[in-house]
Design goal:
By secondary structure, the chain is an alpha/beta fold. It is elongated, with a radius of gyration of 22 Å. Helix 1 packs parallel to helix 7 and helix 4 packs parallel to helix 6. Helix content is 31%, strand content 26%. The strands form six sheets. The chain has a four-stranded mixed β-sheet with strand order 22-23-1-24. A four-stranded mixed β-sheet has the order 2-15-17-16. 51% of the residues are buried. Bound molecules: ligand EPZ.
Length: 438
């Protein structure tokens, strides 16, 4: 498995282009299953999870062409398989996003239950409850969700859905299912993430009638059928946040291009509070550097959008190890999302964990060490810590970071970081066409 070798201590300087959002591309690719017509998606990031989603769609019978590396033309004209198998779902929980579209268009779907992952148990009960509200019959058989549209009607039925908890992919699954249901669906306490809004925009381009995306109440008037569409995926706000922290933690200066500052408003304002100077150059460009007064400890609590995103918690914790004072970090979304803390403790960080609260004392002098990545955002945190640590850091299992960051080591090297990927028998793990790209 690949590793990263990083020698820290270099302030980053230069320009970085932000890729498209993984967490918008995944539901938008699944949405192509709602029509037999071609759906063309631009600005799709070239990351491992996208490759997995593409394979899933092809296994179902869709064709996925990539006229350009970041453009996907998906045509679900001949779907013959209605099952997302365990082997795929276990590698990427977001595969569950095919459940709503398959059920809505074909009246049947079989999807492996995702099971837990490193950051939490992550059940999908709210997805299933929502589909049952739309009239679906849902059973669990041998680790699979087996769902069918109401007998005799063949179509899902519009309904009122109240989510007990805000769920991003739950909202997206129900949103897609409701587009082809008979009648009106109203979702209450829906997720407001920019990725949900982006999906709704695509669905409306396909001919759906979605209103209120981005607010807690989304309404969908079901239609008979959906058609072709072309759509550009929004920039990745978590990659944007990660590079904002990279500039601040190294004491460097970066210009981030092709991003969408408005989607990172809460992260930007928190970083400014913590002493980071961030200028919105225009609607797609940010300029960032550490303020002359240095970094100050500031508390955060992770919550659904538009509050502080859980996907930036780990990166923010790395920054707080370099800030003056004590910061309290509360993780309210996932029950086990502090795996990066114990790795940073091995570098000398002063972090105390108490359940879902982490207390960070800084600033400390981090020293390089051999580290293990446990999940996507934890690995980004370790890369950031390695960039500021004295000496050499080796990060193992970087396949986690490849899931959601496009060429992160190349982007960092282009702005002065001393980072390289140590490949270990990659030829065995990746198909020949993809060697050298990731
Ligand atoms: C999405 O996951 C993102 N993934 C995650 O990003 C992100 O961390 C998360 O939203 C929260 O922002 C994608 O969009 C592909 P949830 P999702 O359903 O939809 C509980 C990354 O790093 N819950 O909003 O799976 C759940 O356990 C990834 O890119 C239920 O109890 O998250 C959690 O505590 C990691 N029952 C909370 O709700 C359900 O049916 C929020 O989860 C569904 C969720």
């Amino acid at each position: 498995m690949d590793k990263f070798r990083i020698t820290g201590g270099r302030p980053l300087a230069g320009r970085v282009s932000i890729s498209g959002a993984k967490n918008s591309s995944l539901p938008c690719m699944a949405a192509a299953l709602l029509t037999a017509e071609p759906v063309v998606l631009h600005n799709v990031p070239y990351v491992r999870d996208i490759i997995t989603q593409r394979r899933l769609l092809e296994d179902l019978g869709a064709t996925v062409l990539t006229p350009e590396l970041r453009t996907h033309k998906i045509t679900a004209a001949h779907i013959e398989v209605f099952e997302a198998p365990y082997d795929l779902v276990k590698t990427m929980r977001a595969s569950v996003l095919v459940l709503g579209p398959l059920l809505a268009r074909f009246g049947k779907a079989k999807v492996s239950l995702p099971g837990g992952c490193a950051i939490g148990t992550r059940p999908i009960d709210l997805h299933l409850e929502g589909l049952q509200h739309l009239g679906a019959e849902v059973n669990l058989e041998a680790g699979y969700v087996v769902a069918r549209a109401p007998a005799g009607r063949g179509r899902l039925q519009g309904a009122e859905i109240h989510f007990d908890k805000v769920t991003v992919t739950g909202t997206e699954n129900l949103l897609m299912a409701a587009t082809l249901a008979e009648g009106k669906t109203t979702m209450h306490n829906a997720a407001r993430e920019p990725e949900v809004v982006d999906l709704a925009e695509l669905l409306n381009r396909m001919g759906a009638r979605v209103r209120g995306a981005g607010t807690p109440t989304i309404t969908v008037e079901g239609v008979e059928a959906l058609g072709p569409a072309e759509h550009t995926i929004i920039p990745d706000r978590i990659e944007t946040g990660t590079f904002l922290v990279a500039a601040a933690i190294t004491g460097g200066e970066l210009e981030l291009r092709d991003c969408r500052p408005e989607h990172s408003a809460t992260v930007i304002s928190k970083l400014r509070e913590a002493g980071v100077e961030i200028e919105e150059v225009n609607q797609s460009t940010l300029h960032v550097r550490r303020g002359a007064g240095g970094l100050r400890a500031r508390d955060i609590t992770t919550e659904p959008h538009p509050r502080f995103p859980t996907d930036m918690q780990a990166q923010y914790m790395a920054l707080m190890t370099q800030a003056e004072g004590r910061s309290v970090i509360k993780e309210t979304i996932f029950e086990n999302r502090f795996m990066h803390a114990s790795e940073m403790q091995r570098m000398g960080a002063r972090i105390a964990i108490d359940g879902r609260t982490a207390i960070v004392d800084g600033p400390v002098h981090l020293t390089g060490a051999r580290l293990q990545a446990s999940d996507l955002r934890a690995s980004a945190c370790l890369v950031l810590a390695g960039l500021v640590a004295a000496g050499e850091t080796i990060i193992e299992r970087v396949y986690h970071i490849d899931r959601g960051y496009e060429k992160i080591e190349a982007k960092l090297r282009s702005v002065g970081a001393d980072i390289e990927r140590l490949r270990e028998s990659v030829t065995a793990s990746l198909p020949p066409t993809e060697i050298g790209v990731l």
